[in-house]
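> forwarded from #structure-qc
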């Protein structure tokens, strides 16, 4: 690799030992300490070539004897640092203890590097912590396995692919992501059991765009061992401005203390019983309002495009001029249309209170009343020209389940998803405007569903549904061949559809059940698996002394008084 001009190489999770073990006793002959045999073998090579690498190791702590799923960063100067995995899945917990290194960022001559491991990417918090500590590059190490061909359907429900989640780490945080996963078939050295890997290692830009990817291929066509080196030339410092822009959109006072609290899986806030629901996302072309002719079907949740009482394309001055107070013409028409259809109707309008205007989302119910109002808390650049920011998330308990209200613009800030997940929303109604330029770019071959969202689904509502384990419904406009109207399911890789409105259709509809019961995970399990003891920096302002100490330390646990 060094001969090919590579400066930093990422190797998969547990690259030294392999991953397919049933328990600590079986793994024990293959663990290593850090420093240990693996680092001793690699460091002379790095010293000779100048290469930097991060490698997955099944680590045995030399003091306690506990095993950890670890990635270690090394270079010509020696061992730079290590990270012990926090997001442990059902296989990990049979072998490894929870990480105790926090999420660290390590200064190197080639850039500021953070390490993340596989199932960590199920949780948005770990890569966000890396960004808050100033990471330019995230090295992501995975063994993203899939079920073997011929697996019975009952066992195939766990057919999850972590490599199909990596786009969010770059897009939401403004950092480079270098993601390595395995390909081919791994065989347990003791039992001969097999794990099936189909590749897909990739490199992503701070804007969330894919730069290069290894092929996704059936493992039986690949020989054992290295099956290719996939590289891209980047400038690590180019991440700084993008990352800082992403982080500047945050409002930590809004997250404190909710995002740092332990949310038990038996949280009484959550919807207790499953129920069928019908969801609908309206699709309009650019132009005049169609609100007066829109209505939900009976007991349906219909979300309209944002600012639906107004023609599209109004400038900030006109939006402020047309702002209304509560109970005005927009809300009156919204409740009338909801009542006419005996369903639930959601949209937004410029809402005035005193001298301020807010981008206000309203939910109307079948009885002809406004059930909830939300003021957009994380404004886009265009919204900041006419609106002030709101100060609280809103979840409304309805017969359909717990309905959160947001705008699609809010969803570019991943903490918003965290708030609604913590508040146990089953559904998130998020009106949108025109379609976004940034789409899902995950390789369609990594999906088990029949109609992958690659290239057609807007990324931010897709990510909110997956990372929050809830349904997201966005009414939106169609522009050319692209639409912002969609219904986004909690598990788009394995089981739930990502539906976007077809050309010429006035809406896209889907009938499902909430709360989402899950395949490999659901919202309750997601909450139960979080490491809230690590999340304090998420809720602290940048000038807070504890936050400053944590960020300045760069890596390791920092306890503040």
């Amino acid at each position: 690799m060094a001969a090919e001009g590579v400066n930093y190489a990422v190797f998969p999770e547990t690259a030294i030992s392999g991953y397919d073990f049933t328990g600590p006793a079986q793994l024990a002959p293959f663990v290593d300490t850090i420093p240990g045999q693996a680092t001793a073998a690699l460091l002379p090579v790095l010293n000779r070539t100048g290469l930097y690498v991060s490698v997955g190791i099944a680590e045995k702590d030399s003091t306690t004897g506990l095993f950890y799923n670890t990635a270690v960063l090394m270079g010509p100067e020696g061992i730079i640092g290590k990270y012990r995995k926090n997001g442990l899945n059902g296989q990990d917990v049979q072998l490894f203890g929870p990480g105790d290194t926090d999420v660290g960022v390590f200064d190197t001559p080639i850039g500021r590097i953070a390490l993340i491991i596989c199932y960590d990417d199920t949780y948005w918090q770990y890569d966000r912590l890396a960004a808050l500590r100033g990471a330019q590059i995230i090295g992501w190490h995975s063994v993203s396995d899939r079920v073997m061909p011929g697996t019975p359907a009952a066992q195939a429900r766990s057919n999850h692919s972590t490599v199909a989640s990596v786009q969010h780490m770059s897009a939401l945080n403004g950092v480079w992501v270098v993601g390595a996963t395995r390909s081919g078939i791994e065989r347990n050295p003791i039992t001969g059991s097999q794990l099936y890997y189909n590749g897909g290692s990739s490199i992503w830009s701070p804007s969330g765009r894919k730069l290069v990817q290894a092929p996704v291929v059936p493992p039986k066509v690949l020989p054992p061992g290295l099956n290719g080196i996939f590289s891209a030339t980047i400038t690590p410092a180019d991440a700084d401005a993008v990352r800082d822009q992403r982080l500047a959109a945050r409002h930590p006072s809004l997250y404190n203390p909710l995002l740092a609290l332990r949310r038990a899986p038996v949280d009484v806030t959550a919807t207790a019983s499953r129920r069928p629901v019908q969801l609908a996302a309206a699709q309009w072309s650019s132009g005049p309002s169609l609100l007066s002719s829109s209505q939900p079907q009976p007991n349906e949740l219909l979300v309209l495009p944002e600012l639906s009482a107004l023609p599209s394309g109004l400038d900030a001055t006109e939006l402020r001029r047309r702002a209304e107070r509560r109970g005005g013409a927009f809300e009156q028409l919204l409740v009338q249309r909801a009542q006419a259809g005996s369903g639930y109707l959601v949209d937004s309008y410029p809402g005035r209170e005193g001298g301020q205007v807010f981008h206000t989302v309203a939910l109307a119910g079948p009885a002809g009343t406004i059930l909830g109002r939300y003021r957009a808390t994380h404004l886009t650049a265009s919204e900041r020209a006419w609106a002030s920011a709101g100060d609280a998330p809103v979840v409304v308990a309805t017969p359909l389940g717990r309905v959160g209200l947001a705008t699609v613009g809010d969803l570019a800030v991943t903490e918003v998803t965290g708030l609604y997940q913590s508040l146990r929303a089953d559904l998130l109604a998020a009106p949108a405007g025109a379609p976004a330029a940034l789409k899902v770019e995950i390789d369609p071959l990594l999906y088990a569903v029949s109609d992958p969202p690659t290239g057609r689904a807007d990324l931010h509502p897709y990510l909110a549904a997956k990372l929050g384990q809830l349904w997201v419904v966005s009414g939106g406009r169609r522009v050319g061949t692209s639409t912002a109207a969609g219904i986004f399911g909690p598990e788009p890789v394995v089981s739930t559809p990502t539906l976007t409105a077809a050309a010429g259709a006035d809406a896209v509809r889907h009938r499902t059940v909430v709360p989402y019961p899950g395949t490999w995970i659901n919202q309750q399990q997601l909450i139960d698996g979080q490491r809230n003891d690590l999340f304090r920096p998420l809720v602290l302002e940048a000038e807070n002394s504890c936050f400053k100490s944590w960020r300045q330390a760069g890596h390791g646990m920092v306890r503040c008084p």
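QC bot note: The chain has a mean pLDDT of 94. The CA atoms of residues 276 and 543 lie 46 Å apart.
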